[in-house]
Task: structure prediction
Amino acid sequence: MRSAHFSGQDGPSLRHTPPGAARSIRLALLIFHLLALHLLALHLATLGQQAVTEDQVKAAYLLNFAKVAQWPASALPDGPSPMVIGVSGGDEDFLAVLKAVVAGKVIGTHPAEAKAVNSPEEMKSCHIIFFRASDKKRAHAVLESVPQGVLLVGEDESFLRQGGMINLVRDHGSVRFEVNADALDRSQIHLSAKILTLAKTASAPPRIAASNAPEEGARPVKHRVPPDYPDIAARSKLTGTVQLEALVAPDGTVKEVRVVGGPPVLVDAVVQAVKQWKYQPASNETREIVKFSFGPQ
Result:
């Protein structure tokens, strides 16, 4: 089997191609790269002798996400500034692989660069941050403090629920990716619809269809953690609506939660999630009504 090579170049010269057509050709080539990467990942498990390691596949994904994502100008202005991919947690081996993959690559006008990041302050200089599974506790603590315009990628099953944007997952021996579209929208980082269709569709328990219906004039939620759909509820296909009243401090943290109603097996999941919410600051304590409707989508 031939090894796939991602050069970071756009292929044939587009110098004399009209701008609109050139953009379409570049996007098509990048989508082709991701498709090729998918095929490579899907075949890793069947190789008698693995020609490509899992670390190399994940590093290639990160480079291709850098190519296909569109950042707001405030996060990545035109010019020769580097496109920085930070790695939080893990060992030096993966960082060495990533540095080899991005070496010499230029994304638009931006040279690609990889480095380790160990603090929220270091993360502010990144455009992509990859949180290793060994760093999931710190990931949960810093996700809401990472500035807008940073693409957050992880490899832990709870990463998307915590507010991450893309998660690299093992799927029948290969590596694929899942996407949290809501978190991407809030970050103002855009991926084309064609690329999003490549994302793995979660097939585990039924997804939660949740609606938050606060009373008029209620404070907006700054950081929202969706509740886990309890296994017992998933097995019995239980649906229903949980309603809570949250006492929110002036700094936006939830001080206490009072249950108004809902199926008991679902109530605890919502209470534990809402306790982690962060509202916009206000001058006084407020009481917010929260409603969640559970059901497979």
